[in-house]
Amino acid sequence: MGRKKSIIKIPKNVFLKCPHCSKRNKAIVDIESCPQKFVCPKCNKEVNTPIAQCCVICAFSNKRCPRSLYMEARVKGLELR
User: Fold this and answer.
1) 38 versus 6: which is more confidently predicted?
2) Residue 7's pLDDT band (cuts 50, 70, 90)
3) Cα–Cα distance for residue pair 11/13, rounded to 1 Å
């Protein structure tokens, strides 16, 4: 019997936490692009991606974006869904 291949799932929704007011905002993950900024609906401030991160999903949520998950799956030989 062969080993079962590990799977990495792409999240459909994430919660982005505003660094200014700490409000958690629900966002839908777009598989094709990684957002570089978002506007907080509570404080109306525009939040940009920090230099060390690839996008606002990786920087301000507890999940990672599809691009970084895809790279991890390729490196580790995992299946992506």
Assistant:
1) 38
2) confident
3) 6
Mean pLDDT of the chain, nearest integer? 88
Q: Please give the C-alpha separations between residue 27 and each of 4, 65, 75, in angstroms, as whole numbers.
A: 32, 12, 27
Instruction: State the burial class of residue 39 (Cβ atoms within 10 Å of its Cβ: 0-12, 13-18, 19+).
Output: exposed
- pTM (predicted TM-score): 0.81
Tell me the sheet residues that pair with 38: 47
Domain edges within the chain: 7-80
- The two three-digit tokens of residue 3, written as one number: 């080993």
Paired with 47 in beta bridges are: 38
Cα gap 6→77, rounded to integer Å: 9
